[in-house]
From TrEMBL:
Listed PROSITE patterns: GS_CATALYTIC
PANTHER family, alphabetized: GAMMA-GLUTAMYLPUTRESCINE SYNTHETASE, TYPE-1 GLUTAMINE SYNTHETASE 1
Cross-referenced InterPro entries: Gln_synt_N_sf, Gln_synth/guanido_kin_cat_dom, Gln_synth_cat_dom
Entry's family note: Belongs to the glutamine synthetase family.
GO biological process, alphabetically ordered: glutamine biosynthetic process
Domain annotation GS catalytic: ranges: 129-465
Residues making up the signal peptide according to the UniProt record: none
Protein name per Swiss-Prot or TrEMBL: Glutamine synthetase
Pfam families, per the entry: Gln-synt_C
Coiled-coil parts of chain: none
GO molecular function: glutamine synthetase activity
Length: 465
């Protein structure tokens, strides 16, 4: 995270919604449609489309759209995994701070992220990961005086869809990390088109460079306060996909397209800041101890976090040893890309065990709760440090490290048994409703994908992610 964020209150004083909406429209004169969105547990975007007149009326009168509770428990094919969610509904509350005109829509289409709230009280639902992100940040600041700042690396592979509608091939095979090959030059309009579009929708990027896999590029987003960074990640992905489609190309976050080439991740960087004092707490003993406890908590709960951050079986093919993606042991290292936690500087670490198939709000909530547990229990970061690839360690040192889950099934089991992330006491079967439903959905999804042929499963994932 090369650029520091602008220091200001991450939760500014509220402005009347209609005033905020009119101010947005005064700068965007072509709006005709409004897309209201929220992200499912499977990281697919649920969308409701309304006209400008209808949405303006909704904002004026405080009206909200109603959604069935079933939305939280749908597996692929719209199969319901939780019968208790068949009754009732909730409302979606638009966050007007996230409004932007979608790229290549000529300003006619506005996209807005929404919170899921109780239809009667208007309070955030316990199952809403976006709302939970906000609450956990407020809780951490209340207890420590610190707020996380996060930034994402958006790795993407650009593919051409063949006429059979099943086969996808990269836009170029002659491709190499951080270089611009002759073949790449034929696709620079696409890459620079993405950069221009991101700038137009106010997504700040640090840099863009070629990655190692065919057709693979990385867009490094600037760091920001958590909710803005998470919303911006979704905006960036949407923008890249829209621009790619305008070039007749498909953008995918599939984590491992080819077994002999590097995979595609979505690494997240995190630091802790004091938003009121306006500085990064470097060399402050109190704050640095908090940061190290936080990082130790993430490492301690990493097997459970992986159920959210590596949400498909194919995700675990990307993080095998020897390909700079995180490896198979719970450990950390100073600027070591073969460890799941890469310690970059005294108040900056990178989680490498995450890909673009994950719901980023869920991943962040899990990281924050794990880090908070580390602070509360003053966990130590002394153990688990390695200076080389764990696979190259002497057997005795390697055996002292904890093995991480190698499949989604193992990660889901770790999450189910995690007393902090699943918020359940020993000998109590039911855990947090969001976690319980997520586990049920992912287990159903695993079975559905397992029945597919490899080529069908690959095409299914590419088409959705």
């Amino acid at each position: 995270m090369a650029t520091q964020p602008v220091y200001r209150n991450p939760w500014p004083l509220p402005e009347p919604p209609i005033s905020k909406w009119m101010r947005f429209l005064s700068k965007n004169h072509n709006v005709k449609f409004v897309w209201l969105q929220f992200l499912s547990y499977t990281s697919n975007t649920y969308t409701r489309i309304v006209t400008l007149a209808k949405f303006t009326q909704m904002v004026e009168n405080g009206q909200r759209l109603s959604i069935s509770h079933e939305a939280f428990s749908l597996a692929p094919g719209d199969s319901l995994v939780d019968e208790e969610l068949t009754d009732g509904s909730f409302s979606i509350l638009p966050d007007l701070d996230t409004a932007y005109c979608q790229a290549h829509s000529e300003g006619t289409r506005v996209v807005i992220q929404c919170d899921c709230v109780d239809s009667t009280t208007g309070q955030p639902l316990e199952r809403c990961a976006r709302s939970l992100s906000r609450r956990l940040c407020a809780k951490l600041q209340s207890s420590t005086g610190l707020v996380p700042v996060i930034g994402f690396e958006v790795e993407v592979v650009f593919l051409k869809r063949e006429p059979d509608a099943v086969t996808y091939t990269p836009i170029g095979w002659n491709h190499q990390w951080s270089t611009i090959t002759q073949e790449d030059c034929t696709n620079l309009d696409l890459i620079e088109g993405c950069m221009s579009a991101l700038e137009t929708v106010s997504v700040r990027i640090e840099q863009v460079h070629a990655e190692a896999a065919p057709g693979q590029w990385e867009f490094v987003l600037s760091p920001d306060w958590p909710l803005r960074a998470l919303d911006t990640l979704l905006k960036a992905r949407d923008t890249i996909r829209v621009v790619a489609r305008s070039f007749g190309v498909h953008a995918t976050w599939h984590p491992r397209l080819w077994p002999d080439r590097p995979g595609t991740g979505a690494h997240v960087h995190m630091s802790l800041y004091d938003p009121w004092k306006g500085h990064e707490p470097k060399r402050n003993t109190y704050y640095m101890k908090k940061f190290q406890h936080f990082m130790a908590g993430v490492l301690q709960h990493l097997p459970a976090i992986m159920a959210f951050s590596l949400p498909q079986e194919i995700s675990y093919e990307r993080v095998k040893p020897g390909i700079w993606s995180g490896g198979e042991y719970a450990c950390w290292g100073l600027d070591n890309k073969e460890t799941p936690l890469r310690f970059i500087e005294e108040n900056h670490f990178e989680l490498r065990m995450i890909d673009g198939l994950a719901n980023p709000y869920l991943v962040f909530c899990a990281m924050l709760r794990a880090g908070e547990d580390g602070i509360e229990k003053q966990m130590s970061l002394v153990t688990g440090q390695v200076e080389t690839a764990p696979a190259k360690l002497p057997p005795a040192k390697r055996e002292a490290l904890r093995l991480l889950p190698k499949t989604l099934r193992e990660s889901l089991e770790a999450l189910e048994n995690d007393l902090i992330l699943n918020q359940r006491a020993p000998n109590v079967i039911e855990g947090h409703p969001m976690v319980s439903t997520y586990i049920a959905i992912k287990r159903e999804e695993v079975e559905i994908l397992r029945k597919m042929e490899p080529d069908e499963r690959r095409a299914w994932l590419i088409s959705r992610y």
